[in-house]
Amino acid sequence: MQEEHGFVWQAMLETIDVVLAGKRVLDAGCNRGGFLRLLADRRDIAEGFGYDPASGAVEDARRLVGDRQLHFETASTVPAGWGGFDVAFSHEVLYLLHDLSAHAAAIFGALDPGGVYYAVMGVHTRSPLMVEWHAANKQELHLPELRDIEEVVGTFRAAGFEASAARLAMRFVPTGGHGHHDRSQLLDWLDYYYDQKLLLRFGR
Q1: Which among 61, 115, 55 is positioned nearest to 83, based on CA atoms?
Q2: What top-level class would CATH report for the domain 3-203?
Q3: Fewest CB atoms within 10 Å of the CB: 4, 33, 104, 108?
Q4: What are 70's strand-pairing partners?
Q5: Residue 56 phi/psi, 5° resolution?
Q6: Domain segments of the chain as ranges
Q7: pLDDT tens profile 112-146
């Protein structure tokens, strides 16, 4: 498990309102596959599919599958032939996408009717630390303009989704990494994780 995200993954699982056991799950921007391995090991999903544009991360994900029913592809959108998912997830992927409408349409098409897409998003215009981070990294990382949450929700509603939002059921936040070593910013980071890092729920 990628421990630096473990506390966020736990908060995601404590916030969602579906039972994952026996479900087919899609992870958009799966990185090294840690979240899907967690779902296979602890939530008894039937099958998991993850895609990510980083081929090295996908190679790691495949290497770590073991005997779990997990499948990974190097791709920047839902791979051709993938569909029929009950639930989809992404964690801090939406802010990276230049064409959010295309992503919303692709996820909508990949979900079965009644399916749900949960997207964690903390990098947005109402997130002071992320506004600062985005400004410093926009050029180097070729990021799109920073979006506000209302714009994101509107894009998914236009694609046919019903939209709602929650704050994550966050417990303890590790104080290492993420700039937390700057003690003057610890309360700012707690505000970020408790108030500004949202779980968006898009229902098909």
Answers
A1: 115
A2: alpha beta
A3: 4
A4: 48
A5: -65, -40
A6: 3-203
A7: 999 999 999 999 999 999 999 999 999 999 999 99
